[in-house]
Amino acid sequence: MNYALLCTVATLRKLDGRPMPDAKLNSDTRVRILDVSERQFMAHGYEGTSMRMITSMAKVNLAAVNYHFGSKEGLLREVFRRRLTWLNSERLAVLDALEERAKGAPLKPSQVLEAFFGTLLRIGEDESLGGMTFLRLLGRTLTDPAEFIRTFFATEYAEVIERYKLALFRAVPDVPKAEIVWRLHFMLGAMSYAIAGTDILRVITGHEMSDISGKEEGTKSEARRLSERLMPFLLGGLRAALPQFADSSNRQQAPLAKTVRSKSQEKKK
């Protein structure tokens, strides 16, 4: 094939949107590096994962990693960004749909938690979104994030967290906003710890999670079993009675559990 014909084919491929062979090769290499890095960072942590480990498993050289990601920090950010882009978009879409159906009325606390935490747990059942590998990586990173990744998460989550905070404020209007923020903090911590892995369960009980699950429960995916146990726990924490402070203004606040029950009873009347 002569040079003029090659140029013509190249131009046509650009025009019809088909990637050039080099572009596809670069894309495949990039995805392979991200997949390997996700598994290695999950298994060994950020500090415990070396670039040599990644390049060896991905069958690329260090120059390829630097070309696509610039540095080890840049690589970890991209590992998270490709999953969090979907997660953040899906969380906002689910919340938008719920609020549209509510037609201006506040959502139920359970709806807000299911939209936020339930959407995250769905990743565990979908390997195309990272599956349990990504969930464990996210949980382990959130429990002890490096400064650069803490800043990254704060930026990535900013819009989503703000929207869900406002939804919770409306869902439980009788609870001080500061208390809701505290409880969101506790729920995020419980979620991070739970998805990081079940090693501590083996330490406490001497058994794997599958060993202490019922026969029927043992047939479900790990993500499903985790969701069925964790979501009621998180909702119970949100609905717990308010702490009694020395400040009388805080003591006058009605317990959250009582408030939620009272509202449901009023609807039945």
List keywords for this structure.
single chain, mainly alpha, Arc Repressor Mutant, subunit A
CATH topology-level name of the largest domain: Tetracycline Repressor, domain 2
Strand content: under 5%
Q: How many discrete domains?
A: 2
Q: SSE order, as H and E?
A: HHHHHHHHHHHHHH
**What's the count of strands?**
0
- Our measurement of the CA-to-CA distance between the termini, rounded to an integer number of angstroms, reads 82 Å
- For the record, the CATH class of the largest domain is Mainly Alpha
Instruction: From the alpha carbons, calculate the radius of gyration and give it in angstroms.
Output: 23 Å
Based on the coordinates given, report the CATH architecture of the largest domain. Orthogonal Bundle
Output the structural class: mainly alpha
Mean pLDDT, to the nearest integer, reads: 82
* Helix content range: over 70%
